[in-house]
Amino acid sequence: MARKVVGFGEDDLRALAGARSFERGLGYRVAVSGLGVGDGSVTAVVHGTDSYEVELTLGGDDGLSGWCDCPYGQEGNFCKHCVAVGLTVLRRAKTIPHQRAAARARASGLEAWLTDLSRDELLALVREQIAEDPRLRRRLELRAAAARSDLGTVRDRILALIDPRPFARYGYVEYADAPGYAQQVAEAAAALRALTTDGRAAQAVGLAEEAIRVLEEAYGEIDDSDGVVGQAAAAVAEAHLEACGAARTDPQRLAEWLAGQMLGDSNDVTDLDPLDYAEVLGPSGLARLRQLAAEARRRRPSGWAGRYLMERLVKAEGDVDAVVALYAQDLTPSGATHLRIAVELESAGRADEALAWAERGLRECAAETHIDSRVVDYVCARYAKAGRPADVVGVRRDRFRVERSLATYQQLRSAAQAAECWEAERVAALAALREDARRERGGWYGGPVLIDALLDDGDVDAAWREAVGLADDRQWEQLADLSRETHPAEALAVYLRLVERLKEPTGERAYEHLARLLLGARDCHRALGTQEAFTGYLADLRTELRRRRKLMSILDRYGL
Predict the structure, then answer these.
(1) Alpha helices in 133-174 (DSSP H)
(2) Of 32, 114, 360, 542, which sees the most CB atoms within 10 A?
């Protein structure tokens, strides 16, 4: 019934928050105060270590959503505080429709009251509000200065809003102060848009560029972990774009300004994209921008900014051959650039050329241990689609020879099984891994790949034969886990040896691991019919480690 009244239920809260946040939110229901119901939203304050403001939207096309100014909520999560407010709303569901109706009535009454006020009464009200609200005062001061064409004051106010120094208590805008600074930057963006709306777009262009310069200089000294300053700076960039369009900015000058931004070292905060300005730049501006990008490439062929700018411009022109030529100037040793070229060609319907470039990447990067796996996958997928399973095996075999890992072994096995030649390929692959193990080359995860490969194949007997003197503890434990029933005596010896090694480490993770080993040992004793021996062993172990209360509670939980 409550679900029909407020538009959501407990299941919706659990789905949005996740089980952990939902359960934690249950304990915060008593901490909710100041519940305010609007026409389509609810606001409240949740008290804990700190007090946090929460707003829930109730129903609508987007369904239930929530916002909270706690750190977790500011990351976009439906936090425990949102859950607590949602549960409070459900508990008061019967009163919500009446409170909504009251909110609508209040809004209607306010509108009627304002309409009935005289000019002098409205002025008195505005003066009262701006005396109490500094943000409102700043906004209205800007609008007033713009209306008087007092552009000097407008400039000073916008730059004051952008200035981070009032927030930099120690020469640096800390995380806690970033939202306040971001609010002022957003106010500056709104003021710039207002200038454009008021017919002063040309002035807005210059002021926006000055504001962007200040932001870029300051951004390196701001802890913007939540990205709030970046979002506000993006609004300044959008205001600049709008102003350029309204002012019909000279394309050549705009191209030179954009090139300076893109090719400089401080485009992090606004992340300008020249293609957003394509309509304003027109053919002449885009040509000038490309000329400047080409000059930058000649000065610094390996420079990232010049390459990125040229790439964006060339791709926008839709000339695939030009894109390929640009990428081909700087082929990476991993094969990633070859793949980018292949993807561009395939998107243009040139599949044969695309495959040829990917194959070239395999050839030119054949000796690289860490070739981009996507290149290998791309070629193999095309070979498989074309009915060339033997060629897929060849590619996987070549990669396995260079990079002997469990992953490349698995990929070779999959390809060879599809080609019905795995038996021969496996013999050769295991011989290579066996030689690696003897040379003590090991594997990616600490033990020889040989043992991992045999275990992955399900060849436990072979893994036991090869493990002596080679396997690491992780592999021994995996062997024991797979052999409790078939090799209980051998598995038991492994578990007991690993338990002895885990007596010294402390902490919950080590204790959980120790408990899992003991469970394995217990299963082995059961398979051997020696449960009494395990009972005595466990009793001695608990006596030896009895001072570790956390360990004792964990063993109790596992029934040990």
Answers:
(1) 134-147, 151-162
(2) 32
